[in-house]
Amino acid sequence: MAALRRKTTGPVSYKATDDIDPNRLVPGVQALRYTEAAPGGQLDVIAPCCGRIARLRGDWLHTDHLVLCTTCALAYDVQVLDENDGGFGAVFVVRDEQAVLVRRRARTGWLARQHPGDVHRPAPEKRPAKRHGTSR
Predict the structure, then answer these.
(1) 113: enclosing H helix or E strand
(2) Mean pLDDT lowest for which of 11-25, 37-51, 102-116?
(3) Which of 26, 61, 94, 126 is least enclosed, having the fewest CB within 10 Å?
(4) DSSP-based three-state secondary structure for 82
């Protein structure tokens, strides 16, 4: 019986204009994206998962950046590339980490009552609706 052979290939890479299914953004996947200059020497780049803009600050050309998409809970390593034509590109590499995002907590419920030092305002009372067009 012939042994099964598996192709060994590098990580999946997407071009700058490719639409990427968010389900295909698994650890190791690379996506190239175009960038745009932003005020204050910053650089804007569009995240490959949902199209939101990440603004890179500081020395964006010589350092790697950690970018977290709070909408999709994906973490990326981002490296800016000089395209030698006056523009810059950015390579997103999906990290093997699952981010846990914080959300607003409810005012009521068991967990909210476990923190007695927190100041909770009671919910506003409902006022009776005014009737328009009636006179008494």
Answers:
(1) helix 110-113
(2) 102-116
(3) 126
(4) strand
